[in-house]
Amino acid sequence: MTDENTPADLSYEQARDELIATVQKLEAGGTTLEESLTLWERGEELAAVCQRFLDGARAKLDASTETEDD
Fold first, then answer.
1. How many Å apart are CA 38 and CA 2, to the nearest integer?
2. Please, is 26 exposed, middle or buried when counting C-beta atoms within 10 Å of its C-beta (0-12, 13-18, 19+)?
3. pLDDT surpassing 70 at residue 1
4. In Å, what is the CA distance from 63 to each residue of 15, 53, 54?
5. What is the pLDDT of residue 5?
6. Which residue has the higher pLDDT, 4 or 18?
7. How much is the pTM?
8. 30-48 in b/e burial notation, b at 16+ Cβ within 10 A?
9. What angle do CA 56, 59, 61 make, to 5 degrees?
10. What's the CA gap between 69 and 23, in Å, rounded?
């Protein structure tokens, strides 16, 4: 991979964009099994980062809604 950042160091947008590129590489094919597995693993890490950001945003929205309801 050309990106030197670990997934935890990325912003949501960076992780999402890299995830999109990773999926496109996998869908395009033409990689060895080892390369495909490496891409898959990176994609899983990136997806987890994105999910954490989304979960955090959902929690903030839920907390805000609960505060407004009180």
1. 12
2. middle
3. no
4. 25, 15, 14
5. 76
6. 18
7. 0.81
8. eeeeeeeeebeebbebbbe
9. 110
10. 41
Structure-block tokens of residue 56 = 């955090």
Q: What is the DSSP letter of 70?
A: -
What secondary structure does DSSP assign to 1-65, as a single string? ----S-GGGS-HHHHHHHHHHHHHHHHH----HHHHHHHHHHHHHHHHHHHHHHHHHHHHHHHHH
Q: At what angle do helices 12-28 and 33-69 cross, to 10 degrees?
A: 140
| Rounded Cα gap, residues 11 and 29, in angstroms | 27
Q: pLDDT value at position 67?
A: 77
